[in-house]
Amino acid sequence: MSLIVSRDTQSLDAQGVTRATIESVLENGSDAIFAAIFWYLLAGLPGLVLYRLTNTLDALWGYRNARFLHFGWAAARLDDALNLIPARLTALSYACVGHFTTAVHSWYKQASSWYSPNAGPVMAAGAGALQVILGESAHYHGQIKNRPILGAGKPPTANDIGRAVALIHRALVLWLFIIVLGE
């Protein structure tokens, strides 16, 4: 877990691990799958390579610290720009293949409160689609960060991890169906 999330994992209980996993699954579904497909469809292989390079640089250096301040800032802003449309399409996809009303309501009411302009819509809609609560406080670099609540319903359980993966699978089938119809 500590290799795939940026939060401190030593103090996580079972629910914290579950919440971190679902948040990562939903956000990485957008970044690694749907945005990559979007850029490939829009700009071919060069678009896909540019997107994945930018996304990888943001993941490696997009943190605000003295070492990567300027380069990390540029990578993070370019990644935000390239994900603007794909993140919203992903959020809409999660809503369409999950609990639509809760997903759209969560997206509309909660996404703007999240610190990332693209992760907010994706995770709020995903949490709503699954009818679970994500967000809340987490430890980052020795500090507690009080994060907004995303979604609605119950706190996630370990079973909801599989439901999150299944949500992404259904969204991918939806995208493939639309792509085939468009050809």
Note the gap between the termini: 40 Å
What is the typical, i.e. mean, pLDDT?
A: 88
The number of strands is 4
Tell me about the largest β-sheet: 2 strands, antiparallel
Based on CA atoms alone, the radius of gyration comes out at 16 Å
The strand line-up of the biggest sheet is 1-4
Tell me, briefly, the overall form: globular
Number of helices: 5
Beta-strand percent range: 5-15%
**Structural class of the secondary elements?**
mainly alpha
Q: Any low-confidence stretches, pLDDT <50, length ≥5?
A: none
The amount of helix comes to: 55-70%
Order of secondary-structure elements: HHHHEEEEH
Subcellular location: Cell membrane
Main location: membrane
Family: Belongs to the CobD/CbiB family.
Function: Converts cobyric acid to cobinamide by the addition of aminopropanol on the F carboxylic group.
What does this structure look like?
By secondary structure, the chain is mainly alpha-helical. The chain has a domain at 14-41 and 84-182. 68% of the residues lie in helices and 7% in strands. The chain has helices at 14-61, 69-97, 100-110, 119-130, 159-182; strands at 133-135, 138-140, 143-145, 149-151. The strands form 2 sheets. The chain has a two-stranded antiparallel sheet. Strand 2 (138-140) and strand 3 (143-145) form a beta hairpin. The longest helix has 48 residues, at 14-61. It is globular and about 45 Å long. The protein starts with 13 loop residues before the first helix and ends with a helix.
List the helices and strands and how they pair.
Elements: H1 14-61, H2 69-97, H3 100-110, H4 119-130, E1 133-135, E2 138-140, E3 143-145, E4 149-151, H5 159-182
Antiparallel strand pairs: 1-4, 2-3
